[in-house]
Each structure stands twice: as structure tokens, then as C-alpha cells.
Amino acid sequence: TPEDVKKYGIGSVLSGGGSAPASGNTMADWENRINELKQAAIESRLGIPLLYGVDAVHGNNNIYGTTVFPHNIGLGAAHDEQLMTQIGEVVAEEVRAAGVQWTFAPTLGNAQNERWGRTYECFNEDAGEVAVLGAAYIRGLQGEKGTEKYLDEDHVLACAKHFIGEGYTTGGTNQGNVDMTEEEFDALLDSGLLDPYTAALDEGVLTVMISYNSVDGVKCHENKHLIQEVLKDQLGFQGFVVSDYNAIQQTSGKNYKEQVRLSLDAGVDLFMEPYTWQDSMQAIIDLVESGEISMDRVDDAVSRILRVKFEAGMFEEEIGGTHEKELGEQVGSEDHRALARQAVRESLVLLKNDIVKDNQTIMQALQNMDNLIVAGSAGDDIGKQCGGWTITWQGATGNTTKGTTIFSGLKAAMDKKGGTVNYSANGVFTDSDKKVDAAIVVVGENPYAESSGDRSAGQLKLPASDISTIKQIENSHPDTPIILVLTTGRPIAIADYVNDQHIKGIVNAWLPGSEGEGVADVLLGDKDFVGTNPITWTWYPQDITSKYTDTSKVLYPVGYGLKKVEKTGNFTTIDDPNVVDLG
Ligand code: BGC
Ligand code: BGC
Prior knowledge:
Helix content: 25-40%
Distance between the termini: 67 Å
Shape: globular
Strand content: 5-15%
Number of strands: 19
Largest sheet: 6 strands, mixed
Bound molecules: beta-D-glucopyranose
Strand order of the largest sheet: 10-17-16-15-13-14
Radius of gyration: 24 Å
Number of helices: 20
């Protein structure tokens, strides 16, 4: 509460995923609440400005009506640096409009095992690619370092997270253990795993969040070697280190005080302790008084946090100023949504594109078709196409925020050309004798976030209802070509559909966010596919563990992505019997 902020001199407050002000979830509710908290900090004993943080991980995604961008895996498929910077700029404006100065983004992990529930938060499986896109995104969020824009009133502090090794846990378990010795892990760090962080630091990132995972059984939050020696001493990080949500409580300390000691000593500067913040403050005082933590360590942490607050211009910040109001007018604007729509277009990856007739591929033929049907649970559902971290932490299906569904985008495009398109979630259409040129079936994962997205290999497949919808269309339309559009945050089992001669095209739209028309722009418009697969996709999820050692298990390697017409040689370079050779 504002009273707590004032009484205890609290320096930073966060909203966890889905944690909106009690008054409601509009931009005005957020602004009012945050400004109250900021005002209370100014009135506190020291008068040091309050830093407010949120998980704006694909737009300012907690707040109703904001522009929701594709999740990072889709942006990785688009792999367009300039686009990343533009998105960063827009997200910063939509965050800043709420009075928030800090976003816990971007995630710089590189998923090695898609069983992991946070795979979609990663840009790519390769740390080098993550470094490039992450840096470009940070440039947008913060403004370019060395220019006047850097951390001005249009920009926000980024947070490089989660340090480090999160994509390498055994079985892809979230918050799990990386089964390597310290030596082996150091070798991995040197062979590229640190690159995203080096790039982020070069870009002027001033905050780093520690990861829940362990390395060789030791939680990163108590790993002095990784935080103090590698991040701060070796990489020369001058900003502050924030712990993850309640994460210090997973360290090996036998009681809370011991957990605070271990993480403070390891190098955590700011404690994200949303429930036990009072205990953590008391623990730090006790630890200094007993001599278990040196005053130097506390001074170091405080200096780092203050330096960041100075660099971010927080001491000059006008609470709820006119600029904030101006930014508010742009939230969810047409321009912002147009950029998100472009991101959707660029993120689409064409995985299958068979010949249908007259030597045309299905994607070519689709341009000239007049009567389409659309089916599948993800066809007309904003919440589903946005995925996790949207309005709520886990995300939800249904009409959760403003935007355009994939179907409404297709409908608008067909209306424009005078064609027809009908939608049925389960694929049951009443006017069954109507002529249909093609069926677009939009299916995919239901929303999830973090550990609740962890899956066994056997669970990495479409929901049962989507599987029956595909069957329904196949049975009711035996001669109609089918295009499968997937909304999935990661590779799932699709071998059956790749092999299915009735299914002529497969597109992965990842988790596209609020601007579903981007799909129609490519499927029905004159845009071609430019996206490429950012994560090694196996024929069968059971083979994930050997995907990096046995190429025969791989269905789509990284970089795979077809075009409507042959331009790049993509059709012939890959040894896959299902890839059409237009020779
Ligand atoms: C919060 C999330 C947070 C999670 C941690 C949830 O209650 O809303 O922001 O990531 O807890 O477990
Ligand atoms: C997540 C972080 C997030 C934090 C705050 C944690 O559970 O791991 O990514 O920034 O919650 O919501």
C-alpha cells in the first residue's frame, strides 16, 4: 500500500503476471495506483523515487486494450533486428503510459528442450541468435545508448533474464537443474551462453534477473561464482541484480534469514519478495548487525540501485506528467497494432506446401480461391492466440482483450475480394453441399505460463478437441485441400499431418498476439512467407533428447521455412520426402 511504501521506505514494487490494481484493469487504474505509490515514496524518510516493474513480455500485456505482440518464439522466427527495435519502442511507450519505468524483459534463454513451459519466451535455441535479437529489442525498450533517447521519458529500463542456464535443465523442467559440473558449465558459458548477456550489457542494460534453475544442484540465486564473479567481475556489470519471484526461498538456507544471507552474499542487490518483504528487510538488518553480511555488500547493492535510478532519470521524473497522458493516447493505437500485425506476418513459418493443381502449390492456389471454410479452436479466439502472460499470468482462452482474431482477419480479406468464408470451431458446417475450395484449420496449444507449461514428450501434441476437428473436416470434405495453421509456442507432434496427403499446407503462426489479420495478409494477400523455424523440430517428441545428435530424428531444422513459390532453393535443399521439389 502507499502507506507501506512511505513507512518502510520501499524502493521498488512490482505487479506479477495478472496482478492489476484493485480498482480495475484499465490504463487509468494502473496510472492512478502507480502514481499513488510513487508519491508515497517521495514522502518517505529518504524521498528516493520508486521503481515500478512489470512483465511486459509481449506488449504491456497485463493491461486490457494494449497492443499484444507475438511471443518471443515468433519474433525469433521473424528474425528481423529492425523490427525488434521498433517493437521495443512501442512496448516502452505502452508501458511508460502506465507510469511504469521497468519491464522484466527480454528473456535471453535459449531452449534446448521444448518440453520446457517457457520455450515460447525464448527467441531461438541458439544463444548467438538470441544475443542479436535481444540486443535489438533492448535498444528499442531503452533507446539507443549514447544518444539522448537512452532512458528518456519515452523509454523503460529493460531486464536481461534469467541468469543463467534456464534452457538447459534436465528434461526441460522449469526451475530445474542443469546437470553439469561447474567446470562443464563454465565451458558452456564461454562457448556462447554468455553472449546474450554480453550483448545486452553493451546495449546498456542496467538490470539482470537471476534464474530459478540450479547448476550442479546449486540454485543460481546462491551461486556467488555466477553472480559475483562471472556477471559482475568478469562481464563488468555495473547495474543491479534482482532476484526472481520468491526465488531466494528455494536456496539451501535452512531458514529465511539464511536464505537472504546466501543470496545477498552471492550478489543479489534487489529482493523480489512480494509476500515476505518485511522479513527480508529485517533479515538484512540482523545480518549486518551480527557481522554475517558486511556493510560494504549492502552499500554496494544500494549504490547499484541508486545508480540505476539516477541513470533512468527517476530523480527528475514528474509523477503522472502530461507526457504520460500523451503516451496513454497511443496505447493500442492503429499504428501500434499495425506494427504488431507486421510482426505476425513476418513470424509465420510455412512448413508444408504441396502441389494441388496446375503445378501450383496450395499457397499459390489459395490466392485465387473464392469459397473457404475456417475451423479449429484457435481460429476465432483472441485469448488462445495470445497465449500465456496475457491479462492474467497463465493467459486464458476467450475474449480476454481487444484485437482481431485470425478468422476475422481472413473474413475481412475475403470480403474485400468478394469471396466467402465461414467459421465453425469444431468443423461442423450446416450447408454441407456448398462448394468449398479449401479449409483452413487453426489449431494449437491452450495458454500456459512457466511450470504449468512443462510437458512430458507424450503430451506435446494438439488438444484432443483440435485433433477431432481435423478429422471432422477430413471426413466431411474428402476432396477439399486442408491448410493447417498452428498456434503453438513450440514444436509439437505433427508427423501425422505432415504425412497426411489430405493436408496440403502447414503454417506455424506461433503465438501471434492480438493482431490476427497478419495471418490473412500472407495466406490471402500478396505477402510471401519470410519466417524460419527457430528451434529444432523432431518428427516425434520422444526423440527430443537425441535431436542434436541424430539428424534422422529431425523434421524441421533451424532455418527451415518454405515460400509460396520457389525463390530460395528451400524446396530442394532439405532431405525430406514431403517437401515438394519444384525442380
Ligand atoms: C505471479 C507471477 C509469478 C508467479 C511466480 C504468480 O502468482 O502472478 O507473476 O511469475 O506467481 O510463481
Ligand atoms: C518469473 C519471472 C517474472 C517474475 C515476476 C517469475 O515467476 O520467472 O520471469 O519476471 O515472476 O512476475
